[in-house]
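WARN no homologs supplied; continuing
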Amino acid sequence: MEEQTEIDKEHAFQIVYDALKSTARSKGTAFYGELAELIELSGRSHEFHRILDSIDALENREGRPILSALVVRRDFRIPGNGFFEQAKTLGKYADSTDDTARASYWVEEVHRVWNYWANH
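OK structure emitted
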């Protein structure tokens, strides 16, 4: 998607949001690149990451766990730094550079997402 209009952005948001809810209900994870391809973007694009941040903000406002916990890097099978920064911004994660603490928080959030969406 080159220059996106507001309608395109809303549509892209809904596609990614629906895909993440489906992934959560099946207790899975998704790679950045594969999820971004659904809306014809790169997994590294700023627009794609803004969509993930918007989804997380919505989920946080609604008192739900953040869905982007399910989006992982293909090489490390864990989210990138942006996930942890967003979780910190939303007040869900105390910043830590310790890889074990980051992994522990991420695994807990994944399970919260899976448990919530298994019933919704």
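DSSP finds five helices and two strands in the chain.
OK
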